[in-house]
Amino acid sequence: MTSLGSFLSVINSTSLLIALPSMMVDLRMNFFVVIWILTVYSVALAVLSPILGKYSDMAGRRVVYRTGYLIFLVGSIMAGLSPNALIILVARMLQGAGAACLFSNSLAIITDAFKGAELQRAMGINAAVVGFGTAIGPIVGGALTQITWRLIFLANTPIAALGYALSRSGVAEEMRVKASIKMDWAGSAVFSTLVTILIVYLTLSPIIGWTGITIAMPMTALVLIAAFIYIEGRTENPIINPSIFKNKKFSPTITSTLLNSITRYSLILLLALYLQGPAGYSPLETGVLMTPYAVAMGLSSFFAPNLVRRVSSETLEIIGLFLIVASAFALAMSPIPYVYAAIAMSIGGAGMGLFYTPNNTAIMLSVEPMQRGVAAGLRTLMLNLGSAIGTALTFAVLATEEPMQLIGNVFLGLSTSLGYRDKLLFTRGIDILYVIIGAMSLLTAFLIIVEDRRRK
Asked: Does the reported pTM lie above 0.85?
């Protein structure tokens, strides 16, 4: 049942990418507005996940999780019926809030319900569902967009309704002392502002520039970080207790989550940009051609729990990271025939799955039960920060080779036929990024190896 929430969020995001060109033409939106439609969802998800995770630790997970389906349902209906971009932006914010309710509780609910080998298996199934949603999202999105892009959103409603019905009785609730709840509203406000500024700056700066009006954002973020540390150190019940980062199991694990999120999102984005740009495929064809990556990730996530019985979780994560390194370096030798690219994609997807499942389990088991909501929320925050950093890194490097307008057209699938010079420059930028992805995965593996030796 908890996997249904993950599936809903993933298939919504992956199918939406295919619908963006149609939405852009139908509602007369520019590239800047389209990026905001993607960004506002990530902002709401990243901002609210730790806050809602903290609240669910205190008040109980069932109500928060169940409410997430209702909020996502309302947001999906609003987006599907919206007459203009402004309504879609509000609707996407609601979808992000609903997804935050789901993501800040799903892994915590699984960890509360299962133990030992069963927990590993449950985490594997959850990750496999994410891989399945990633695989079919572009195909479903392409099929629905042939009718109307509005079905991308409206198709979410029966899934959300089913999830709500199942969650009413399918989530066991632990007793909480609700009278003692005192939320850290001051810390929540500062944290929300800080995360919003960081994600907006990382996402939009490659498009509108890193200096000028945007330079105030990182300066403001530094002030907010200092204010947040000050507030959290003096409040009775902080939204994010600084002591959680003193946990010698949690800190390195969540750091590896952030680094892997940067590489995972960058790899997906680069595959899409290459196939839609230098390779010349349409967005729908690109979604189908990227299926080997998603399928391999789903299968390896599903079978990872069986491998954990033979090798340690850390060893499995390291193997997965080295597979990502091999995949990135192979893809950096483009242009290569698609059959070889598909093999490289499969290797990279398998590596992601082998890392993803044991890493999720390690995060949830590294904290006490009453901190699992916060841990799940911080994990979601790191995933979204990673995607924002990955987007910024990708666009920043490519912008040194090609005009941002051309990169944006390729990203949206509006320009799938490039000249020889543009193909050459685009490919060179993509190859540089693949090398960076490989190096970052090597760094992540090194950190895990050092931490594993320290523990032993």
From this structure: no
Quote the CA–CA distance of 16 and 157 in Å, as a whole number.
15
pLDDT at 179 over 50: no
What digits encode the pLDDT tens for the residues 224-281?
A: 888 888 887 777 777 777 777 777 788 888 889 989 989 988 888 888 888 888 888 8
pLDDT digits (tens, 9 = 90+) for 11-31: 877 788 778 778 888 888 877
Residues 6 or more apart in contact with residue 456 via CB below 8 angstroms:
none
Please enumerate, as own/partner, the contacts of 447-450 that have beta carbons within 8 Å and a separation of 24 or more.
Answer: 447/252, 447/255, 447/256, 447/259, 448/252, 448/256, 448/314, 448/317, 448/318, 448/321, 449/314, 449/318
For residues 40 and 89, what is the distance between their CA atoms, to the nearest angstrom? 7
Matching residue, tokens 């990227």: 290
Residues 6+ apart with CB under 8 A from 306: none
What is the tally of structural domains in the chain? 2
The model's confidence at residue 433, banded by pLDDT at 50, 70 and 90, is: very high
Query: Tell me: the pLDDT tens digits for 61-106?
Result: 778 888 889 999 999 999 999 988 899 999 999 999 998 888 877 7
Task: Spell out a b/e string for 317-335, using b for 16 or more CB atoms within 10 Å of the CB, else e.
Answer: bbbbbbbbbbbbbbbbebe
Question: Do both 229 and 243 map to the same domain?
Answer: no
Question: Domain with 444 in it: what CATH number?
Answer: 1.20.1250.20
Whether residues 126 and 189 fall in one domain: no
Asked if pLDDT for residue 175 goes beyond 60, the answer is: no
Q: Is residue 141 within 8 Å of 18, Cβ to Cβ?
A: yes
Written in H, E and C, the secondary structure of 55-81 is HHHHHCHHHHHHHHHHHHHHHHHHHHH
Together in a domain, 42 and 124: yes
Given a cut of 80, is residue 285 above it in pLDDT? yes
Decide: 23 and 146 in contact? Cβ < 8 Å: no
Q: 61-81 and 156-170 are packed helices; what angle lies between their axes, rounded to 10 degrees? A: 170
